[in-house]
Amino acid sequence: MSRAVSLHQVSKSYTPGVRVVEGLSLDIEPGEFLVLLGPSGCGKSTVLRMIAGLEEPTEGEVRLDGAYANHLPPSERDMAMVFQNYALYPTMSSRANIGFPLRIEAPGQDPTPRVQATARMLGIEELLDRFPHQLSGGERQRVAMGRAIARHPSAFLMDEPLANLDAKLRNHLRAEIARLTRSLDVTTVYVTHDQAEAMSLGDRVAVLRGGVLQQVGTPRAVYALPENVFVAAFIGTPRINLLRGVVLAPLDGAMSIGLGRQALVLPEPLSEDHRLLRVQQGREIIVGLRSEAVRLARPSRARPGEVAISGLVEHVEFQGHEVLVHLDTGSQPALVPELEAPRPVARPARRRRREGGVLDRLRDRAGALRAGPVVVLEHPADAGPGRAEPAPAEARLPGDLIVRTTPDHALRRGMQVPLLVDLAHLFVFDHHGVRICPAPAHLPDLEE
């Protein structure tokens, strides 16, 4: 029977004042495959260990099927864990490793039938009499998974089980894990830093940063509507293009977003999302464009909702089925230097007014993301509206925009090419990295 797992305002500290996990609330439905995704050190393995009972929360509640479970030892939670380093007993054969937890749970019963059934399911029957040192990495991981499956647990907890394997074997075992967990219909919590694993395996993905939950949703929803720059940049290959821009909204002209030497002119009539950008007039923002949101084509071939810019080819990556083109559009990239950092730099404290107004309440809500700002841009350069001072040449990557295209384009370095940007796939983030376009589905009630 699958188990429902709930975390309510769970925090974990190993040293006073330093929280590895902070205020995490998450509900996992019976039979669901949930992926905890984030960079190394973000607290995802700690969350898994608290669910397993190997760590006790400093604050908050862990509930199993609705019952309070903070006090339950691991042996009473009916869960099986698969570790990154296999954790096989070196002096036992594969048969003995798979059957060991069965002998502990039911000393008087013969584990052979369940061991054989599990081996058939995983295709490792010929490996049952081998010892761990006689197995490859992939074979060891199958045995470790077999040890978990044979128990018939109510939940699987997997802590980066494929991290030590080569790319081809990872892809193969990833498909096996998806097939097995769905056929067994067991609640699964899977920890990884690999966004490709998260997107291909999970029913839902929970993105962590600095111990704080950034976003949770289906892989499609998290990719299509990232809540902030961190989520947008962490999910997707190649990484999303992030450019520094300025909203230009003159009273007597078309509204546009300045990107250094060029601008994205927003077509009239403005969409609802684009109308909301007017309040950002004159402020520096972050523009996000995934590689598939831009295509190589002349302005005469523009579709409704596409605007034209141009770029200078700086580098071409041939991928076989596709080509990644690095272009210089005269824009300045919005760097996120702490994207992979486990503990973000805390936002400096601000002087607060004593009386509580609307702005104070909005600041309080924004402060709920206690991991700090995702990215804080420097002050706009004094280069005129819509312009930004270019980064030093030695600090820049090839180009400021990566575009995915087909191999039939004959491109070479130094070629000027026309580009069409699909504004339907335009992301805009404020200078703290919070998404403002497309607008959130629920806008806060200022009177709450």
Q: How is this fold's topology laid out?
A:
Blueprint lengths: L4 E11 L2 E11 L4 E5 L6 H9 L6 E6 L2 E2 L10 E4 L11 H12 L6 H11 L14 H13 L5 E5 L7 H18 L2 E6 L2 H7 L2 E6 L2 E6 L1 H6 L4 H6 L6 E8 L7 E4 L2 E4 L6 H5 L7 E6 L4 E3 L9 E13 L4 E6 L29 H9 L34 E5 L10 E7 L3 E4 L5 E3 L11
Parallel strand pairs: 3-8, 3-9, 6-7, 7-8
Antiparallel strand pairs: 1-2, 1-4, 4-5, 9-10, 11-12, 11-14, 12-13, 14-20, 15-19, 16-17, 16-19, 17-18, 20-21
Helix pairs in contact: 2-4, 3-4
Keywords for this entry:
alpha+beta; 21 strands; disordered C terminus; 28% strand; six-stranded mixed β-sheet; 448 residues; elongated; 2 domains; six-stranded antiparallel β-sheet; Rossmann fold
How is this structure best described in words?
The protein has 448 residues and is α+β, with helices and mostly antiparallel strands. The protein folds into two domains: 5-226, P-loop containing nucleotide triphosphate hydrolases (Rossmann fold), CATH 3.40.50.300; 230-344 and 357-437, no CATH class. 21% of the residues lie in helices and 28% in strands. The protein is built from ten helices and 21 strands. It has helices at residues 44-52, 94-105, 112-122, 137-149, 167-184, 195-201, 219-224, 229-234, 272-276, 358-366; strands at 5-15, 18-28, 33-37, 59-64, 67-68, 79-82, 155-159, 187-192, 204-209, 212-217, 241-248, 256-259, 262-265, 284-289, 294-296, 306-318, 323-328, 401-405, 416-422, 426-429, 435-437. Strands 6-7-8-3-9-10 form a six-stranded mixed β-sheet, with helices on both faces. Strand 11 (241-248) and strand 12 (256-259) form a beta hairpin. The chain starts with a strand and ends in an 11-residue tail after the last strand.
